Structure to design on (164 residues):
C-alpha cells in the first residue's frame, strides 16, 4: 500500500450499495476496504489508526472539552466544529488511546472521510454506511456499534450547530 488509505483528490460523490451518496473521501475509503479480504481489512483499519492526527491544543483536556462516546469499548472523545458560513464545513477531532487501535481506526475513518465536508453532506451519510466497509468479519458487533455511535454523535452535533 504505497498511497495509504487517506488518499485525496476525488471530487465526485460515491454511491453505497443502498444507492445513497457518500462524501468523496468516505466513498474512497469504503471502496478501498471493499476491495480487500477480511484479513487485509483489519490491517487497513490498523493502518488508519496510526493516521489519526493529534488533538489541537484547545482540546488538550479531552474529558472536559469533548463529548465521550460511551458505546465505544475504549475511551473515545469527539468534538465537532461547523464553520459559520459558506457550505458550513465540518471539522472533526478525536481522542482515543494508542492502545485502542480499533477505536482509533474507526475515528480515523470518520475524520478522513468527513472532515472538511459540507454539513449537509455529513448529515446525509447513511447511518449504516460502515456495513459497506466489510468489517463485520474482522471485528465484533459491539465494536461496530461504537462506530455507529460515533456517526450518530457527529450528526447530532452538526444538526445542532446548523439549526441555530
Amino acid at each position: 500500500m504505497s498511497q495509504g488509505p487517506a488518499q485525496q483528490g476525488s471530487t465526485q460523490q460515491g454511491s453505497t450499495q443502498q444507492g445513497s451518496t457518500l462524501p468523496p473521501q468516505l466513498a474512497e475509503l469504503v471502496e478501498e476496504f471493499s476491495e480487500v479480504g477480511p484479513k487485509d481489512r483489519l490491517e487497513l483499519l490498523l493502518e488508519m489508526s496510526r493516521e489519526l492526527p493529534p488533538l489541537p491544543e484547545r482540546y488538550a483536556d479531552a474529558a472536559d472539552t469533548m463529548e465521550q462516546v460511551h458505546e465505544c469499548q475504549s475511551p473515545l472523545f469527539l468534538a465537532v466544529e461547523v464553520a459559520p458560513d459558506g457550505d458550513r464545513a465540518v471539522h472533526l477531532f478525536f481522542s482515543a488511546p494508542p492502545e485502542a487501535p480499533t477505536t482509533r481506526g474507526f475515528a480515523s475513518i470518520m475524520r478522513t472521510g468527513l472532515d472538511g465536508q459540507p454539513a449537509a453532506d455529513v448529515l446525509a451519510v447513511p447511518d449504516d454506511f460502515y456495513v459497506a466497509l466489510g468489517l463485520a468479519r474482522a471485528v465484533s458487533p459491539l465494536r461496530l456499534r461504537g462506530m455507529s455511535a460515533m456517526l450518530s454523535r457527529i450528526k447530532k452535533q452538526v444538526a445542532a450547530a446548523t439549526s441555530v
Remarks:
- Residues 1-19 have pLDDT under 50 and may be disordered.
- The beta strands are 14-15, 21-22, 67-68, 77-82, 90-95.
